[in-house]
Specification:
Strand order of the largest sheet: 2-1-3-4
Radius of gyration: 15 Å
Largest sheet: 4 strands, mixed
Number of domains: 1
Order of helices and strands: EHEHEEHHHEE
Strand content: 15-25%
Structural class: alpha+beta
Helix content: 25-40%
Oligomer: single chain
Shape: globular
Length: about 140
């Protein structure tokens, strides 16, 4: 059993690249990745909605604990031996500001993907929000 299972949106080029990077760094097989954009994905066993998972990265640790947003990021980087890259997430006074910045990035991940030239981010974005799972796929 992996130490951490990360639920990510593979339709987001930025997200996909980040999960690939974590996978390359994970030399001990401590991480597992589940693509929540797949048609058969069901968030119900996690006790959260797809909309909540769309808003921030979610992960489940080996004990069954749910980690959300920057907590999930910090744990993933720590498990692959790269905690030094996210050290500000360990500073209590910075955590609220960084969590807010992360949520903004997550809402705009398709736009940010385009800015970085990461493929054609094809999800619909309106203002500062992107809609996940449009059409027949899933509804939010």
């Amino acid at each position: 059993m992996p130490a951490l299972t990360l639920y990510f949106d593979s339709k987001c080029p930025l997200c996909k690249r980040e999960m690939q990077r974590l996978g390359r760094w994970d030399r001990n097989g401590r991480l597992a990745f589940i693509d929540m954009s797949q048609a058969d994905f069901d968030p119900a066993p996690l006790g959260v909605t797809l909309a909540a998972m769309d808003a921030e990265l979610h992960a489940v640790n080996a004990e069954g604990g749910l980690l959300v947003g920057t907590d999930a990021i910090l744990e993933a980087y720590t498990l692959v031996g790269r905690s030094w890259l996210v050290w500000p997430l360990r500073v209590p006074v910075l955590r609220p500001m960084l969590a807010k910045a992360y949520r903004s990035l997550a809402r705009n991940r398709y736009r940010v993907s385009r800015w970085f030239g990461y493929g054609s981010a094809h999800r619909a974005c309106d203002g500062d929000r992107c809609q996940l799972f449009t059409g027949e796929h899933h509804g939010t």
